[in-house]
Amino acid sequence: MAGFLGEAYPWIKALHIISVISWMAGMFYLPRLFVYHCAAEPGSQLSETLKVMERRLLRVIINPAMIAAWGFGIALILHTEAWHAGWFHGKLALLLCMHLIHAAFARWRRHFANDANRHDAGFYRIMNEVPTVLMIGIVILVIVRPF
Ligand code: HEM
Predict the structure, then answer these.
(1) Total domain count for the chain?
(2) Rounded distance from Cα 111 to ligand 1 centre (Å)
(3) CA–centroid distance, residue 31 to ligand 1 (Å)
């Protein structure tokens, strides 16, 4: 399969990065909405509006962008045979962590949707940093390739 993308390789890599940027933009924004949601009274107009924003952000942007990042990413793996590379093993480990925080964000969104949030704004401010730190690690691994 190595090289199977041929002329399409740079286009697929561009689409991979575009979908990754969309995924990360949503992962940075959703916990911010959780911070504001902590200040909204359950049942209030603000709380109901934030529920709609959180649901649409997750289902219309974050989840489709994640699926696209994987789709183009798998094509790149097969084209470059990246599975041999140490940097890619490190990237996969950080990606697993990214999926754990993605799943946690989806769970906390459901809690807000059911007026059953269990955490305060300070907790979500800290959780907001997790995808940022993981993104920095992934980009350094894939560009610098330290190992
Ligand atoms: C979702 C699963 C992902 C898979 C399977 C994957 C896989 C890959 C592969 C195989 C390459 C090609 C490397 C090459 O051309 O030699 C690549 C490139 C890249 N990936 Fe991913 N990736 C994923 C997610 C991400 C994420 C979450 C980020 C950033 C947060 C990211 C950032 C990049 C960047 C910046 C490049 C371009 C590197 C270059 O120009 O050589 N990827 N990815």
Answers:
(1) 1
(2) 32
(3) 24
The pLDDT value recorded for residue 2 is 80
- Residue among 91, 99, 101 whose CB has most ligand 1 atoms within 8 A, to mutate: 91
Any ligand 1 atom below 6 A from CB of 69: yes
Pocket perturbation via mutation, ligand 1, pick of 9, 11, 20 by most ligand atoms within 8 A of CB: 20
pTM score of the predicted model: 0.94
Q: Is residue 2 domain-resident?
A: no
Ligand 1 site, residue 76, Cβ cutoff 6 A: yes
> 13 is in which domain, residue-wise?
7-144
* Residue 50 located in a structural domain: yes
Cβ neighbours, 10 Å, residue 44: 10
Cα–Cα distance for residue pair 131/63, rounded to 1 Å: 15
Stated length of the chain = 147
Query: Cα separation of 69 and 22, whole Å?
Result: 9
Indicate left, alpha or beta for 117 from its phi (over 0: left) and psi (-120 to 50: alpha). beta
Residue 76 lies in a domain: yes
The pLDDT value given to residue 60 = 98
Q: What is the pLDDT of residues 37-91, one digit of tens each?
A: 999 999 999 999 999 999 999 999 999 999 999 999 999 999 999 999 999 999 9
